[in-house]
Amino acid sequence: MTPTPEIVILRALLENETRYVSGSDIARSLDMSRVAVWQYMEKLRAQGFNFEAVRARGYRLTGRPNVINRSLIEAYLSTRNLTFGLECLDEVDSTNDEAMRQLATGRSTPFVAMAKRQTRGRGRFGRTWHSEADGNLYVSFAFRPQVPPERMQTFTLWMGINVCEVVANSTRSNPGVKWPNDILFDGHKAGGMLTEARMDADQIRDLVFGLGLNINHAPELLPEASARRATSLSEQTRASLDINKFTAALIGRVLDAYDQFVSGEYMKTFADRWHACDVLRDKPVSLVHGPRTIAGIALGIDDEGSLLVRTDKGKTERFRAGEVTLQKV
Ligand code: BTN
Question: 94: CA distance to ligand 1 center in Å?
């Protein structure tokens, strides 16, 4: 899909942020009149962008929205013209549910559904994912992967590695992944992943990968019990993060990671990269698995993505699922 004039204009302004971009140059590149360019600028202004306009020099970007903005995300996704659907809603019950509903209508994949606020954000084990407006990221990716279902156990782990790396690169911080689905900083949770797949006999019909990431929202605004355990990227870096630039980088990374997953290429680096971001390895943990609570030392994961734990009885057990708590030493 070729970018709309609005996106072409935004890209020109973002690429030349300290300089003025001539209105006539933009008009020429888009084969439209300067008045038409001005009309597009007004549309962008209505979305929260600010420009300085100087006669005979042109336009310069002086302000942009720091809440999820579809145009900005698309402009930042500069190397990747939109070959996938991208939906930015003001409010939705759950972006995972929204993606599921759209898959059920036959919408082609991949597509990305995100919202500024969720009214029924969900986490693992049916828990609520608090999803206040503006400042955090609530995003779901929808796919129809043609891979053997047994491989799916490593899917969330592989995505976790990629989310962790993109956070580290974009913020120069040091996050980790807690098996199987948490993004942590020093024991405090900044994000969670929820992968939901629908099966047809022995095939995957479709799959939604949901990610909630605390970006600029202050953790103390969460209900008390969650606030103590939570953190956000801005709290970690002591700076506000450009949520749209970050989201564009994240979307690009997740879509590439998905391709590598489907082709099987991910297997070349999976184990080493998991090792680099695994926060549990060699640490004392307790794991709740069905009716059992197991205490031991986490030893990493096996090829299938199961967690290995050397139990207090000296036996190594593997777990496909469960909830892990890091024990204080
Ligand atoms: C967890 O830590 O238990 C997983 C949390 C997943 C939350 C995200 S927010 C976007 C997507 N929509 C949801 O309802 N849940 C996921």
Answer: 8
